[in-house]
Amino acid sequence: MRRPAHPYAPVTGASLPGTARLTGAAVRGVARPALVRWLACLLATALVLCGCGISPTDVQDYGRPPVISYSPTWVTVYLLRDGRLEPVKVPVVSDSAKNIIDTLFRAGKQPPKPGLTSALNDFSHYDTKTTRYSDNTDNTDQRNEPDDNLGYRLNVIITGEGRVTKEALAQITCTIRQNKQESIWSVEVTRLFPGTPETMGDRGCFEFRNLAAPGVRLPP
């Protein structure tokens, strides 16, 4: 009995009905032209597939990506140059009294111009309170920010070791008066702690006029 062929045995030309095994002469005489035509068709097919209706394009420049921008509010703060008050413009989130004082303390630690210093670097801004301006302190209306055209006293509360110098008082007072002339009539600085709280009384910027740098006009 003849053994069955292996299921994975290769199929030869002689095993197919109606076919004949190709000899070397047949390959040379017949298969080579067919092979050339087959390769040509394969190349043409590849070119068609590579084209497939999509043509290469250059990189398109659509400009810079969109960004959210805003125009900051600018205020004037007073720093020191050789112990004299010099105004500088700095940006703030808003022109509230608290933000202005925060910006003054921050600008002293990172001056926007060379040669500027601050007498407030040993202190920290703790809080600000506004009260309706009145000589009768028993009839004051305390609030965090003025909301009308009446005059107010601004109490700036700071903390830190050491004595609050005249230059430090001038920086705070003149900065507030420069930006809040219509609503803040006077400035009071209080050092809260450490130690016993100390209040320096009502101040106006004009009393520090002898500290102004040459050519600088201080607010009232």
Strand order, largest beta sheet: 4-3-5-6-7
Broad shape = elongated
Helix content: 25-40%
Distance between the termini: 126 Å
| Share in β-strands | 15-25%
Instruction: Give the C-alpha Rg.
Output: 44 Å
Q: Extract low-pLDDT stretches.
A: 6-30, 58-63, 137-143
The sequence of SSEs as H and E is HEEHEEEHEE
Number of helices: 3
What structural category characterises the helix and strand content? Answer: alpha+beta
Task: Provide a brief overview of the structure.
Helix content is 25%, strand content 23%.
What labels would you give this structure?
five-stranded mixed β-sheet; two-stranded antiparallel sheet; elongated; 3 helices; 25% helix; alpha+beta; 220 residues; single chain
List the helices and strands and how they pair.
Layout: H1 24-51, E1 73-81, E2 84-92, H2 97-109, E3 124-132, E4 142-143, E5 152-159, H3 166-179, E6 184-191, E7 198-203
Parallel strand pairs: 5-6
Antiparallel strand pairs: 1-2, 3-4, 3-5, 6-7
Helix pairs in contact: 2-3
Structure description:
- 19% of the residues are buried.
- The chain has 220 residues and is of the alpha+beta class.
- The chain is built from three helices and seven strands, in the order αββαβββαββ.
